[in-house]
Description:
By secondary structure, the chain is an alpha/beta fold. The chain contains nine helices and ten strands.
Amino acid sequence: MTCLEVAVTTLADAQQAAAGGANSIEISIDLAQDGLTPPPALVQSIRAQVRLPLHVILRPHAHDFVYTPAEQQHILAQAAQMLLLGVDGLVIGGLRPDGTLDVDLIRQVAAVAPAAVITLHRALDHCVNPLPALDALRGTVQRVLASGSAPEVDLGRDTLRQWVQACPEYHFVAAGRVRLATAADLVAFTGVHAVHTASAVMTAGRVDADKVRALRDSLSGPCAPVGPGRGHL
């Protein structure tokens, strides 16, 4: 049962994603940098116009995934603010200076947002301890968005498949230059529950409802929610 999530940076893109049949939306800015925290006004405008589940990335800068104590406090404040705007989930990750995943930060975000779906984003792909980190986050994170520690998910599919098999309690979302031509095969091989993309459904730099529909139609089966009491995909 495979879901489709579209990454958007504008209200128009969100509306096109919904029109094309996306199952959920991730809101950010600066996709060229793998997404940064969007302004509240953008989130508010999308929430007012789009009925799909909305996930918002919390990432204050793009030069790495290591955050100062002040930046971490800002992330926590933004998490609380985004919930007031009606989002369904928060997308978070972070690394310690030694390259291990910052499990404490992710737990703090989850504590601020107990009713939200928490997604571990692609900081996991850059950490030195992915499987121990996933083990430590059981019960805290519901979704894991990853490429299998590769620049492109098609290159990391063997690793991603291993993670899916090792951690069946997570809802895995394949990300990292997903392609329409290979998405169905990627899902079949890895066993992921969803795919996440922007580039595969764009025309001239904008989300195209027809391409969203084509990708949606290529994926097998209906989309299942993450779990009762934890929001939706």
